[in-house]
């Protein structure tokens, strides 16, 4: 979607994802992280005290979906998050959506859009059926939310969750800018389903890198422990936003994880008009010509490789293909050296411009809360299978084990209790 319709929808959604609004979700994210930690502690205590192998991605999907359900919908909707998670087999969900997406992309070149939509809604096959089930479940839930929150707002009882703010903004907008019921449901459905898997995948890859790099993991845990001590020294128990903002290495690890392992490997765009793109450096073509720009006619389909940009040595240094959080602390990523695109720290991970991810602040704060809690409480180590993990492009860049692709998405790590210096 682009143009006036996109601008209209984005203007309605923005109030729910401002800096102040997203920071207010921190207590919810911390509670979700604590709930996940308790599950892992129970698993460890009932198994081997030296550590147990946990498919962390499945559990991070639970935690991220809990955060989405409670932050987007309502603090009391954690039950929904768990129910819908159980409804969706997580090892096949990405594969299911990938197959549907590939079908629609391929068919769109040869079949009218109306027929494609009919096949998507009525066609045979287990994957199409599951995609419809997921869509119907989330749509029905979104309808209930719209009715419930609209009534609450009219009675002056609205909450501050993202969906309430979205519905309020839509109710306050003039008729020309207001979203239709169908548009409103589509946006809520997208936020519920799309938001949790990208965050869970990003956290999974970060924990894998911490398991691969014990010194980085230990350094991060030391910073977390110092912050915990600071919180106790002021006579408090709860982590607040200023605590997260005072942890530079936590921020560096998250930024490096988002750079090195962007959840979405690429982005598709179409030129809305004829344009000429300047190149950052001259390019030698197959015909032997040296060019400095590329003509892009209107209607040209463009594939933007987020992975390629995020690992470009000209931008990130000669070690761009290595996981190195220190690049965010030693001046390598100084804004003056980078092109100044992206929603967050010059990364393309959340896209850029008016098409950028509207929920990027929500995702970053959620990751800060979950990662600081999990690394503070647990130690992560490699398994033999984890050494064979490869990146498998789907809707997200999914972790799979070489030789076991038929087993679906996996991220098995050894998880053990970290030494205790006090907890928050």
From TrEMBL:
InterPro entries for the chain: Cyt_P450 (IPR001128), Cyt_P450_E_grp-I (IPR002401), Cyt_P450_sf (IPR036396), Cytochrome_P450_monoxygenase (IPR050121)
Principal location listed in the UniProt entry: membrane
Binding residues for heme: 357
Top-level taxon: Eukaryota
Molecular-function GO terms, alphabetical: heme binding; iron ion binding; monooxygenase activity; oxidoreductase activity, acting on paired donors, with incorporation or reduction of molecular oxygen
Pfam families: p450
Keywords: Heme, Iron, Membrane, Metal-binding, Monooxygenase, Oxidoreductase, Transmembrane, Transmembrane helix
Compartment(s) where it occurs, according to its Swiss-Prot or TrEMBL record: Membrane
Pathway where this protein functions: Secondary metabolite biosynthesis; terpenoid biosynthesis
GO CC aspect terms: membrane
Coiled-coil spans in chain: none
Cofactor: heme
Transmembrane segments annotated in the record for this chain: none
Family stated for the protein in its record: Belongs to the cytochrome P450 family.
Full protein name: Cytochrome P450
Source organism: Boletus reticuloceps
Organism phylogeny: Eukaryota, Fungi, Dikarya, Basidiomycota, Agaricomycotina
């Amino acid at each position: 979607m682009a143009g006036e319709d996109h601008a209209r929808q984005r203007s309605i959604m923005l109030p729910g994802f401002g800096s102040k609004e997203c920071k207010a979700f921190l207590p919810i994210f911390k509670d979700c992280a604590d709930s996940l930690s308790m599950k892992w502690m129970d698993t460890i205590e009932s198994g081997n005290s030296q550590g147990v192998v946990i498919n962390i991605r499945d559990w991070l999907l639970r935690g991220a979906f809990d955060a989405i359900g409670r932050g987007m919908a309502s603090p009391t909707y954690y039950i929904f998050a768990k129910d819908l998670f159980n409804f969706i087999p997580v090892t096949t969900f990405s594969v299911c959506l990938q197959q549907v997406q590939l079908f629609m992309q391929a068919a769109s070149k040869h079949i009218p859009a109306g027929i494609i939509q009919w096949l998507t809604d009525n066609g045979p096959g287990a994957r199409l059926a599951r995609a419809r089930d997921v869509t119907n479940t989330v749509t029905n839930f979104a309808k209930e939310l719209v009715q419930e929150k609209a009534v609450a707002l009219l009675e002056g009882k609205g909450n501050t969750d993202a969906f309430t703010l979205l519905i309020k903004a839509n109710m306050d907008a003039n008729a020309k800018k207001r979203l239709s019921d169908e548009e409103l449901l589509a946006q809520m459905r997208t936020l519920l389903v799309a938001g949790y898997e990208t965050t869970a995948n990003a956290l999974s890859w970060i924990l894998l890198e911490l398991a691969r790099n014990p010194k980085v993991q230990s350094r991060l845990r030391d910073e977390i422990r110092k912050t915990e001590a600071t919180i106790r020294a002021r006579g408090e128990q709860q982590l607040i936003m200023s605590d997260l903002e005072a942890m530079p290495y936590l921020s560096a690890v998250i930024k490096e994880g988002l750079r090195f392992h962007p959840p979405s490997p690429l982005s598709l765009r179409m030129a809305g008009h004829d344009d000429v793109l300047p190149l950052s450096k001259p390019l030698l073509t197959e015909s032997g010509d040296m060019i400095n720009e590329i003509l892009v006619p209107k209607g040209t389909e463009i594939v933007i490789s987020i992975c390629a940009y995020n690992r470009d040595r000209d931008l990130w240094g000669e070690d761009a293909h290595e996981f190195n959080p220190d690049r965010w602390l030693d001046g390598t990523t100084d804004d003056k050296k980078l092109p100044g695109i992206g929603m967050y720290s010059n990364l393309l991970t959340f896209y850029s411009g008016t098409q950028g991810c509207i929920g990027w602040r929500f995702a970053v704060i959620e990751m800060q809360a979950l990662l600081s809690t999990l690394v503070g409480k647990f130690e992560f180590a490699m398994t033999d299978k984890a050494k064979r993990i490869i990146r498998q492009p789907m809707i997200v860049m999914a972790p799979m084990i070489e030789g076991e692709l038929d087993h679906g998405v996996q991220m098995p790590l050894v998880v053990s209790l970290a030494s205790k210096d006090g907890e928050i």
